[in-house]
Amino acid sequence: SGARLKPGEVAIDYVSGLGGSPEATVVTTDIVTSAVNAALANAMFGHADETDDFHPFTKAHPGCSVVPAAFAMAEREGSSGMEFIRAVTLGYDLSCRFLIALKPDLVRANQRSAEGYSSTFGATAAAASIARFQEMEMRYAISYAAQQVSGVWSWVRDEEHIEKAFDFSGMGARNGVSVVTMVQAGFTGVADALEGERNIFDALSPDPAPEEIVAGLGSRFYIEETAIKTFPVGYPIQSPLDAFFTLLNEHRFTVDDVKRVLIRLPEDGARIVDNRSMPDVNAQHILSVALVDGYIDFNNSHSYERMSDPVVAAVREKVELVADPDLVVTDAPRSGFVEETLVDGRK
What we know:
It comes from marine metagenome. The protein is mainly alpha-helical. It is built from 14 helices and 5 strands. It has a 3-stranded mixed beta sheet with strand order 4-3-5, covered by helices on one side. It has a two-stranded antiparallel sheet with strand order 1-2. The longest helix has 23 residues, at 162-184.
């Protein structure tokens, strides 16, 4: 579905003009291009519609970068299905483990976007697995990945979801496949970027825990810990929507019955979805659409036209979002609270 949205359309237009060796397919099209280009476009499809998975603790989005990178490299290399599964599993692991070692809250506290960090490392791991890298090749790949990790929180001001799709997925998938194909071509580099002088942990976190990158290695698999979204919207809005529909099913109110809607979210999540320009990443808008329509689906959550719908706009005036520090808890990092005040005084 992401290929039919604006981020997907511009990605297709972009890679179609690049040419490149016919190594991998851009899905939903007849374009066969380099693995790097295919990974970029397919990854942007993966995050364009906000239906990709996420890891609740780190808030990483492994699937939208790791899977396209693995697909592109697997097609290039003629890999087996089992090699693909192993590559994706490793990619998920490194995507999450890298952020845990950096401590994701510390990364974001410095106005950095941790999603760009995790996607590059996860995609690099997946692509390197497909390429069957040995130890020294993997060391070089890690060093080149370390030089490419980037991202700042300015993506929340993106108005068309195009940069967000690139920042969260396209960039990381492109970086990872680029890294691996460069090393395959003979690029050498630093062999100890994780632990040597001026290493990546010290550079990116004020209080890293590098031992966490291997904690439970081989017994804890992060691909088993990611969450699939119930609704095609940004992950901080998942819990409020679930709470809203629970209340709607129990009390059967209509839009005319509601006087006020209060949403409380953890502070980091509230900052992401507070009256943003993208409809599917705007908590006040999505709750308003849910109240007017009685449901949320792909079409009404992604419609920019509904942002200016006077009926939805009037309801949005009733919706208040509060960043609640008491909801910032490790055991429930994506919690939410919704309170409906009805015109008859009931709450």
